[in-house]
Amino acid sequence: MTSTNSDMLRLLLADQDHDVRDQLEEFLSDLGYAVDVAHTTGELFTMTEKNVYRVIVFDSNVADQPLDTVLRQLTALPTIPGIIVMSGNPKLQSVLGAFRKGVVDYVIKPFDIGELQQTVRSAAQVSFLVSEFMAEHERMGDGSTLDARTVSVAGRVASGLGQPTVSR
Amino acid sequence: MERPTILVVDDELLIRDLLYDFFSGQGWNIAVAEDGEKALDLVRTRQIDLVLTDLKMPNMDGMTLSTELKGNHPDMPIMVMTAYPSVDSAVQALRLKLDDYIVKPFNINQLYKTVEKTLKDKTKQQDAS
Question: Which of A60, A89, A92 is the mutation pick for testing B, counting most B CBs within 10 A?
């Protein structure tokens, strides 16, 4: 399996709450991730066009477009990053939308930072494994296009993450 | 895929009968169970290709059943359905890597399409692995 050493991984973080953003940026950087920060959805998209991210952590508060739209764009990225959505005011439809778009986790604030660390690691693992799945699909050469849902299902299954992302 | 076998788990007889009749008519094999414990018994004795389970059931609820199944059958597609949706249970389903979270009342044709797609996705993943 492709290495997921944190010092090789680029992570994009977006949150309008600057205290949370600064705290997470420092925490994740200390873990060895190369952390970039976006403040708006526009910045999020611009940065994903320029850089390859294995993990994207964003709070739904930066989504000035419907969350579904943001997720559709992020899950269409060629590297299929592992996506973690955070929210301090979660709505059921948002959670279900994120679920069906194949996000790795939906973290409700306030959260345990240690659990988030585990989730970020899982997200990176899923991203690498889905990339391998996609590569294998291309090698099989049946010409079909995999939609986001199929890829997300593959990510869940291929990762072998039959266990919960975060222990309860 | 040969005729897949779907296990429908729900304590409501009406739901079990409805899904049994509809899905059978679509050409699937259907097994039914009224709670999680009976569902686990069936999974031990039969080839099950997908589990569609209600969440709120006596004896063993759907989330406990899903957790048990994920432990022993990590590749098995599992979809949960509930008339009492909540953010907490939806997040729990997401974290268990379940395949969908259906809110009752559901549109049965839409449910059929979702189950069918999940079965096809499983086949694609198996082919690629």
Answer: A92
Question: Is the pLDDT assigned to residue A38 strictly greater than 80?
Answer: yes
Looking at chain B from residue 60 to 99, which residues have their Cβ under 8 Å from any Cβ of chain A? 67, 70-71, 73-75, 77, 85-87, 90-97, 99
Q: Is the pLDDT of residue B99 over 80?
A: yes
ipTM exceeding 0.85, yes/no: yes
**Global pTM value:** 0.84
* Cα B53 versus chain centre, distance: 4
Q: How far apart are CA A101 and CA A150, in angstroms?
A: 10
Main-chain dihedrals φ then ψ at residue B81, nearest 5 degrees: -135, 150
Residues 6+ apart with CB under 8 A from B72: none
B33-46 pLDDT tens trace: 999 999 999 999 99
Q: Measure CA A105 to chain center.
A: 8
Q: Which residues of B3-14 are buried (b: 16+ CB within 10 A; e: fewer)?
A: ebebbbbbbeee
The token pair at B121 is: 């996705």
The CA distance from A91 to the nearest CA of chain B, in Å, is 7
Rounded Cα distance between A164 and B94, Å, is: 9
Q: Which residues contact A71 (CB under 8 A, 6 or more apart)?
A: A83, A85, A97, A98, A101, A103
Contacts of B99 in chain A (CB under 8 A): 153, 156
Cα distances (Å, whole numbers) of residue A90 to A115, A160, B84: 18, 27, 16
Omega prior to B4 cis, within 30 of 0:
no
Search chain B and give the residue with CA nearest A103.
Answer: B94
Sorted by sequence, the CB contacts under 8 Å of residue B128 that are 6+ apart come out as: A133, A136, A137, A140, A154
Both structure tokens of B60: 């063993």
DSSP label of A134: H
